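COURSE: Structural Biology Practicum
ASSIGNMENT: Worksheet 4, Part C
STUDENT ID: 0417
INSTRUCTIONS: Below are two proteins. For each, the amino acid sequence is given first, followed by its structure token string. Answer the questions at the end about the second protein only.

PROTEIN I
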Amino acid sequence: MHPFSFAKAANTRDALDAGRHGGRYIAGGTTLVDLMRETVERPETLVDISDLPLRDVTVAERGGLRIGALVTMSEAAAHPKVRTLYPVISQALELSASAQLRNMATIGGNIMQRTRCTYFRDVTADCNKREPGSGCAALKGFNRTHAILGTSDACVATHPSDAAVAFAALEARVHLLGPDGERQVPFADFLLRPGNTPNREQALRRGELITGVEVPALPRPLKSGYLKVRDRQSYEFALTSAAVALHVRGGVIREAKVAAGGVGTVPWKLPAVERHLVGERPSDSLWAAAAERAADGARPLRHNRFKVELLKRTVERQLRVVGGSK
């Protein structure tokens, strides 16, 4: 670990001032500290923001939900309103990491976490995300766990967050506060695909701070859930996952929200699947037909071709779980 200075922000103004001068924000530290130990991250200054008033979960009048950036994963997962209104979020959080990490890690930190690509974390390997222009060792290396959607010739690393898949499916918005004031960014625009600049991962401006994640109000009744497929039952990242939310009224699907994880360079929204569902009556044949569209545009690599079929099966299974089998 390289030397760094440490400061604790007493208020939002202190935090923004430190961030404007290059300080890196830290709360739970469950990802950043690991990367610092491995010398992947080498910040000169850390700014502890754990005392900022960003720990509330609030419900809007129409049923939307806002989760403060410093709410821990375990707090968010256990919150009665989160569990009742959007079980897909609770389930995604509870299937993440270990109980000890969930007690420390925050919502803001979770969506900011960096990839678990072994080449990214190995400072001796070529990695455009870590060192722009150095190349991508995963392209010709062992790439079983890497992405099949949203990839580029510069990067094929997956985004690791489970909660981010739920937020992507529900079309959440990220609330930001920076030197230029407050703004909101659609979740789909907040996490960036690699393109030619895989080192730029979020649509953050210098010194900006995440203050919360807002899930919009969706029609009721709404059924939702999260499915995670992995090599072992616990403490493992997804090979594939599916976040599904369905609004069914009068026996017809009126609204469908679907996203996948473990297969994309960012949490991957599945609009083709959603379009296939809306206006139809739930049935096993519908789930199967819709899931066939889940891997549209996939570019599998040598060792992860199995993810194409696994993604389709994962989406189909979760559609059946949430929407029912007929």
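PROTEIN II
(use this one for the questions)
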Amino acid sequence: MGEEIIHALHGVSFTIQRNEYIAIVGPSGSGKSTLMNLIGCLDTPTKGEYWLNGKLVSSMDDDELAQVRNQEIGFVFQTFNLLPRATALHNVELPLIYSGVPSAERLRRAKRALEQVDLAHRMHHRPNELSGGQRQRVAIARALVNNPSIILADEPTGNLDSATSREIMGLLDVLHERGNTIIVVTHEPDIAAHAHRVLTIRDGQIATDMLNPNRRHALGSDASAT
């Protein structure tokens, strides 16, 4: 900001193991969005290192980062980020197109991803023909289709009502039980309660990093995920 240097994050150091389910929480301006961008390879740190699956991501150039994002990170956004004129199936295929996967294999994997989120019966519908929860399921299927190392969800229920939010969090619980590593960035305690571990960011630093003794399992009467 002019001549003033603002450190969005300072002295942040932690390790995430494969198949962990982590929530990153903190107030607005705490640095959690910057941390999310670093984990998702959307940004690089000015100092320090970021290792992902034995690769020093923080030293990569833009092309290498783009490849890592496509192959290692499955993004789920609050606003879904679906192509409005494309079908659910084509939206899920997109990461595979960027990866150069042949057409027949793309189709098979995209259909499989939609089956994993219980949406195969809507694969030929466009986003405006789907409910908010169904659109988020398409976005989750798209995140899964490349078998990423991390599913990175940024306020995944921010645009959904309470019942649909429980449904989506139930689905993330199922995906974690199937072996996926999940990182949820949120300011909502109810959403963070689903994670096994909660990382709290405050003023650009880790305030707390602890296991969640009160983890909420969403696969009860309030959830319809399978």
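ANSWER KEY EXCERPT:
Q1: The longest helix spans residues 162-177.
Q2: The mean pLDDT is 90.
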